[in-house]
């Protein structure tokens, strides 16, 4: 397996726009090309809101 040496891809957009689907498709292509892939899917919509 070939590591991407710290490369990251950020997919950003509104809810329901297909971000997770796109991330999975990108990961699948990279895996087919023998890259190591870690996929993290999270929601940071309330990061800056005061509690």
Content of β-strand: under 5%
Secondary-structure class: mainly alpha
- The strand count comes to 0
| Topology pattern, helix = H, strand = E | H
Task: Extract low-pLDDT stretches.
Answer: none
How many DSSP H or I helices? 1
- Compute the average pLDDT: 80
The percent of residues in helical segments reads 25-40%
Give the N-to-C terminal Cα separation: 44 Å
> Major β-sheet, in short?
none
Task: Please describe the topology of this protein.
Blueprint: H1 19-32
Kindly describe this structure.
With about 50 residues, the chain is mostly helical. The chain has a domain at about 10-40. Helix content is about 25%, strand content about 0%. It contains one helix and no strands. The chain has one helix at about 20-30. The longest helix has 14 residues, at about 20-30. The model has no long low-confidence stretch (mean pLDDT about 80).
Put the structure in a nutshell.
The protein has 51 residues and is mostly helical.
Key features of this structure:
single chain; 1 helix; elongated; about 50 residues; about 25% helix; mainly alpha
